[in-house]
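REQUEST ID: PR-0412
SUBMITTED BY: lab tech R.K.
PRIORITY: routine
TASK: structure prediction, single protein chain
INPUT:
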Amino acid sequence: MSIEYARQVILNEARAIEGVAGLLDESFVKAVEMLLGCKGKVVVSGMGKAGIIGRKISATLASTGTPSLFMHPAEARHGDLGRISEPDIVIMLSNSGYTEEIVDLISPVKKIGAKIIGITADAQTPLGGNCDILLPIGHIEEACPLKLAPSASTAAMLALGDALALTALNRRKDEGSFGIEEYAASHPGGALGRSLMKVTEVMRTGDAAPVMAGDSTVVDVVLAITQARAGAAVIVDAKGVMSGIFTDGDLRRYVQKDHDIKKDRIDTAMTRDPKNVGKDTLAAEALSILRKHKIGELPVTDESGKPLGMVNLKDITGIGE
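STATUS: complete
OUTPUT:
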């Protein structure tokens, strides 16, 4: 019973979102163009649950290349209206279109000269009839058993706000003005931030990433790995180009056979042609390679194949999770 009702809630909200998709028209295109041409910032405002959705929309805009902030409509009437300037765009959210705090903002915002994008039921409301561009969500029946608690309507608002922000992002991406590097710049923290870093930002270098000549003895390489507290060493040829790698796993396999660790050259015990990545590879991609091939170390090389450093699984575990 409970599961069946929960499914109905989810399906009701999905239908509300699908309904909004069918309402998209040239007004949506104009709204995207307005965002792309904005010389100021995008101020998002909504009251109650619509305000919570507005905060998320503003956050999505800000992280995808559109400077944005959220302004509480009640606080706007007590000084926060000063956050808005003439070149700005104000996105106002109200399911009914009659929310007092939102309706009261329309006239002052127009006096400032900022443009208004309204997300509300339709044009037959104070907000819908007085905004510069209307993005309608239609009259939506809430998923709540009382048909009162904002649920399907807020899901539709969120989807429409995401569509607006991400369509603008897609245009910027196609134009080459916003890509992964720009996205990474605004996401420096947490697992997401690490996943957007390049391997050069997370790799081990110098003494922590030993590089040994191919004619070194196995024992010399083992000592270098131990001193660096690393899991592997990159082996290079006479020109300094990577020719192989020697890992803890290679050492275990080596000692199982009758070898002389003090005399044998490392190029007879190393793994040849190891997996490696270039310096512009994202850390998330490096992690994927490490996991796919079940290895703990991944050399980073330059265009000529010379080692730059080593990506260690332990250093980037958690990226993308």
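NOTES: The first strand starts at residue 42 and ends at 46.
REVIEWED BY: pending
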